[in-house]
Specification:
The chain contains 11 helices and 10 strands. The radius of gyration is 20 Å and the shape is globular. The chain has helices at about 25-35, 100, 130-145, 155-170, 180-195, 205-210, 215-225, 230-250, 255-260, 265-275, 280-285; strands at about 5-10, 20-25, 40-45, 45-55, 55-60, 65, 70-75, 80-85, 90-95, 125. By secondary structure, the protein is of the alpha+beta class.
């Protein structure tokens, strides 16, 4: 039987507020009251964490990042992650749905910020002491507003989130850069289509058709924004899901191959080794 990787919603987290599309807390009580959050899982919301003390590692979709004072993690819905934290860890956390942010800004969406423009952007920024202090003040304000009942509560929360995102954008070093805004928007659309259809659609021309552009133009956009072909983006998404299933489900390679849309188990194993550098079995044994 398949054991699905848990996907948590905001209502899974205990809060003094009954709001189900926003949450804010100090990191220590957050972890203390939500032990399940230290094991591998996914969310359906955006998550921001600022660490002010301690160290450790944060694994996001099989990539490990250092935790230290001044580390800020910015995660998008659907990413898999887990923590390895020192006992003296401290910091702040808040999360919100896409609708919670977007509904307050008619002319600006959450994906306008560089760290949310593409799933290929790095999910972390390391800021200096001055910025850490400035961000800490904003996080403190978020928590106070979240726990309080003052007039214009959510108006102020939205303003504080925006200030945090603006400050982070000034310190963030994006991997994906392009002067053509239309290309960035199309890249995000492509990523969303791949995330939805990667099990059934394996060829660039299928995504070009969904986007009503030519396959050649789609590859031009992909190469300019991400320095990867559309074929490579599709393969990366398939491999990521395969890794998740290998480690966090009880399915064998044949079952995983079928779930990901491959009838030929041998072909899938060769495909996996080509892109991951290991066979599925070798990957499982190295990461179990």
């Amino acid at each position: 039987m398949t054991q699905k990787l848990p996907v948590y919603k905001i209502e899974h987290f205990k809060s003094l507020s009954q709001q189900h599309d926003f949450y804010a807390n100090y990191f220590i009580p957050h972890i203390k009251h939500h032990h399940f959050a230290t094991n591998a899982h996914k969310h359906d919301f955006y998550l921001i964490v600022l660490f002010t003390k301690g160290h450790g590692t944060h694994e996001i979709d099989f990539n490990k990042y250092a935790i230290k004072s001044g580390a800020v993690f910015m995660m998008t819905p659907g990413q898999m992650h887990n923590w390895n934290l020192s006992k003296d860890i401290d910091g702040y956390v808040f999360f919100h749905t896409k609708n919670f942010y977007d509904k307050s800004y008619a002319n600006s969406g959450i994906n306008n910020y560089p760290f949310f423009q593409s799933i290929h952007q790095p999910p972390v920024a390391y800021v200096n002491k001055e910025c850490t202090k400035l961000l800490s003040e904003k996080f403190e304000g978020l928590i106070r507003e979240h726990e309080g009942h003052k007039p214009f509560k959510y108006e102020k929360i939205h303003c504080l989130i925006n200030l945090i995102y603006i400050e982070l954008s000034r310190h963030y070093l994006p991997k994906v850069q392009n002067k053509h805004e239309s290309y960035l928007l199309k890249t995000r659309t492509l990523e969303q289509f791949i995330d939805t259809h990667f099990k059934s659609k394996k060829y660039p021309h299928e995504y070009a058709s969904l986007m009503n552009i030519s396959e050649k133009h789609l590859n031009r956009i992909s190469k300019e924004c991400l320095n990867k072909t559309t074929t490579e983006l599709i393969a990366e998404r398939v491999i990521l899901e395969a890794k998740r299933l290998l480690i966090h489900s009880q399915q064998n390679v044949s079952q995983i191959s079928a779930e990901l849309g491959y009838d030929n188990n041998s072909y899938f194993s060769r495909f996996f080794k080509k892109h991951a550098g290991q066979t599925p079995v070798e990957f499982f044994n190295a990461n179990k």
